[in-house]
Amino acid sequence: MRATFTKWLFIVYLLGSGTLYSMIILLLFPFVGRAGRYWLAKQWCRALVFVMRWLPGVSCSIEGLEHLPAGPAIILCRHESTWETLTFMALFPRRVSFVFKEDLLRIPFFGWVLRGLDMVSLNRGSARQAHQAVTQESAEKLAKGDVIVIFPEGTRVAHDAPLRLTSGGVRLACATGVPAVPVVLNAGKVWPAKGWPTGRGHIRVVVGPAFSSQDMSQQDLSRAVHEWMKNELQQL
């Protein structure tokens, strides 16, 4: 009973604070630049990480940040729940830009804030046109100092699901010439791919080594990323 109550209390907080904070951010958007908008959104993510520890009882940690290059990079991350999209801005010291489906921009308040954060939107039209558009947008964000976050499995998956990476993330790294950094986590053990947190737990995020997209072929890079992620997932 208590677990159910805290879960729903957290849901109310998440949706309520998200809507309220989105309204505040939208009001301030005309008066702050790109960096200021990101900073405002990051504060909500930090508050959410703090609240998660007390309501659903979900804590988190991130390991391997020393592997993140000082320059531009593309993070290829396992996607197991909504959790990572809500917390990565708080956990990573660098500015991150997600590659997300364009449909999210139509969500009231959240989508409007997302548009103002100037990240990378993906229009799921023809695969070739989508790749060209994402490559161009990503190159622009990388030139501004962002780290691009892409979920190469294309959708949320259960933690114990087999690792199946599409070629898009590695192709993007090769097209932009920046390192690919694999990231794995165990969020799906606490927060299912479809649904809300199921109880107390600790989520670990592990950042892997940076693989050069200039010193390896696309096939070798894909193989190296896949092997590292597969081995690390077995330990989470």
TrEMBL record:
- EC category: transferase
**Protein name from the UniProt record:** 1-acyl-sn-glycerol-3-phosphate acyltransferase
Membrane spanning stretches: 12-32
Ranges for domain Phospholipid/glycerol acyltransferase come to: 73-188
Q: What is the lineage of its organism?
A: Bacteria, Pseudomonadati, Pseudomonadota, Betaproteobacteria, Burkholderiales
EC annotation?
A: 2.3.1.51
Question: Which Pfam family, any one of them, does this sequence belong to?
Answer: Acyltransferase
One of the GO biological process terms? phosphatidic acid biosynthetic process
Origin organism of this chain? Paraburkholderia bryophila
Pathway participation: Lipid metabolism
- Keyword Membrane in record: yes
Keyword Signal among record annotations: no
An example of a GO molecular function for this protein is:
1-acylglycerol-3-phosphate O-acyltransferase activity
Q: Which UniProt keywords apply?
A: Acyltransferase, Membrane, Transferase, Transmembrane, Transmembrane helix
Which residues, by range, are in coiled-coil regions? none
